[in-house]
Amino acid sequence: MQPVATTFFFYMLSGIAVLGGILVITRRNAVHSALALILTLLSVAGLYLMLYAPFVAGVQIILYAGGIMVLFLFVIMLVNLEKSQKEEQFNKIWLIGLLGALGLGALFVGVFVRSARSSNDIFFQLLRRPLVAFADESNTQAVGQMLYQNYLFAFEIASLLLLVAIIGAVVMAKKRIN
Amino acid sequence: MPDFITGYLSSNKTPGEYGSVFWSLVYIFLIFLGLSVAVIAMNWLERKILAHMQVRLGPMRVGPHGLLQPIADAVKLLIKEDITPSAADRWVFWIAPVFVVITAFTVFIVVPFGPQHAVTDMNIGILFMLGISSLSVLGVVMAGWASNSHYPLLGALRASAQMVSYEIAMGLAVVSAVLMTSLDKDGTGTMSMIGIVQAQQAQQTWFVFKFFPLGLIAFVIFAIAMVAETNRVPFDLPEAEGELGAGFHTEYSGFRWSLFFLAEYSAMIAVSSIAVTMWLGGWLRPFPHALSGETWDTIFSLVPGVTFLFLAALSFRATARMSNHPYFKFQKLGLGAFGLLLALIGIVLFISTDAIDIRGKVQDVFWFTAKVAVFMYLYIWYRGTFPRYRFDQLMKVGWKVLLPLGIAVLILTAIGGIIF
Q1: In B, which residues are within 8 Å of A32 by CB distance?
Q2: 3-state secondary structure at position B214
Q3: 3-state class of B291 per DSSP?
């Protein structure tokens, strides 16, 4: 397989993702924020494709963009937007948010710089491995084998958690239980 | 000719696999053109067939037997005033139809019209198709919300609730077919659209007949869910004309409305081609193994040409039966010319020499298209016969019938795979 992942696509997709992220937090209209979030999620799916993880990209589109965001939009659309737009934001949390974002960004840069310096770091080795090495035809099979063999217990725990959440939602939605 | 054009022709790969930008663009253009023609043809056929089912004539005035009616409609839609409601959210109102059309057309990247006739072959092909078509729900929701009006919002809510519910049943049916691809000798399944058809070829059966009746049940689940996905009768609640105005696109008019129309029909073609690929052997001709050999190959290879000649004969018959009144002179000439065109296509499809083997080359595409066409006819047939579901019945069918059935089929298919 020829590597199609060029630097141009990387910067384009990351740019769109960052732009979408900024739009999410700056739009006053919650529906616009949700749409910007969809843009971000889709470009992240594109980034997964560039990392030769087509299965993850497909699942990202189906679950996040197609499933979760539809539910988000559902909820937002049914809320009275005009009222919430006029209301004054009472929690001035943006300062803490900014500090948190800067801290996280610094952490990322720090880890990257540090592991790029020491050549026997495991993260560095992963970084330097050509991505094409991962690009075989059996990406989906590899994910399946990992999930159902190596991490079966974690997978089952996660599904149990989801089941509990579903039952909880049904119980809460039911008006009377006899 | 330069190498980037000719090099691909002898490669027996999809343009995406070969990495040829030029041929990818050619394929995209051809698919776009073919889809547009198919939508136009569907528009005409739907009215004509529905009319004949209800013992009417249908469009008769614009062109012979109303053949030019879709073009007249398209012109009407294009020059109609395009109204944006003053209270609408301009941006979202503008983006929604574009989004729906983009998702409806993007899925055709992986649709395999033949072993090398797809824009590209992804190894997540079917996942890609389901994912992108699930995105069209977002367009519907956006359209309903952005109109800032009650009826579209209600229509959008109903549409998205319906599409989200039936997506699950659809996905389960697809998963059981994907599972069947792994039941060959070396046991590696695939999600690539081309790979799925090749698996059916290798296992010498269409998946609809595999583990009878498991494959058939999965296919029926998909066939029901895909009608609900595309919001067609009997699941057309989102645009139930009598109750909700026109559902989510009530406020749309002119060109933007026609985009929704285009998207609806190309989505119908897209889900039909998923069904054909997964269960009906994609581009494979009927009985490739039971009736194999030189003679049968030749007989089946004549079918495309014969089909077109038959259509030509039909239109010649209609020409002969048309009134001889001078008012009908142009109509008669037009229909005759149309018949001649069809006959010409039919004759061209017979050509099979060493230099240009058209008859052999069109086989895959013809069988795929023919199978999809059957589904398109079914859509019209449903519309002519079934009454509409009530909303609670719709939800009941989706969640309490199709979903458990889908899970049962999936588990039984897995058990069948272990045993056989």
Answers
A1: 91-92
A2: helix
A3: coil
Structure tokens at A82: 């005009």
- Give CA–CA dist B157/B43, Å, rounded: 27
Sorted by sequence, the CB contacts under 8 Å of residue A32 that are 6+ apart come out as: A23, B91, B92
The residue behind tokens 């141009």 is A8
What pLDDT was estimated at residue A25? 85
Instruction: Map out the domains of chain A as residue ranges.
Output: 1-87, 91-136, 137-178
> Alpha-carbon distance A62 to A60, whole Å?
6
Q: What's this model's pTM, rounded to 2 decimal places?
A: 0.89
Summary count for chain A: helices (H), strands (E): 9, 0
Non-local (6+) Cβ contacts of A62 within 8 A are B127, B130, B131, B134
Do B189 and B182 form a contact (C-beta atoms < 8 A)? yes
Q: Are residues B160 and A74, on separate chains, in Cβ contact within 8 Å?
A: yes
Q: Does B135 contact A77 at a Cβ distance shorter than 8 Å? A: no
Q: A1: pLDDT confidence band, cut at 50, 70 and 90?
A: very low
Asked if B90 has any chain A CB less than 8 Å from its own CB, the reply is no
Residues 45 through 64 of chain A touching chain B, CB cutoff 8 Å:
54-55, 57-59, 61-62
- The predicted model gives B209-217 an average pLDDT of 89
**Can you say whether the dihedral through the CA atoms of B34, B40, B43, B47 is positive or negative?**
negative
Does A121 score more than 70 pLDDT?
no
- How far does B86 lie from chain A, in Å, by closest CA? 16
Q: Is the peptide bond before B238 cis (omega within 30 degrees of 0)?
A: no
Q: Do B157 and A138 touch (CB under 8 A)?
A: no
CA distance B288 to B281: 10
Region B142-171 average pLDDT? 88
Contact B224, B402 (CB under 8 A): yes
Q: How far apart (Å, rounded) are the C-alpha atoms in residues B189 and B187?
A: 6
CATH fold, domain A1-87, is Four Helix Bundle (Hemerythrin (Met), subunit A) (1.20.120)
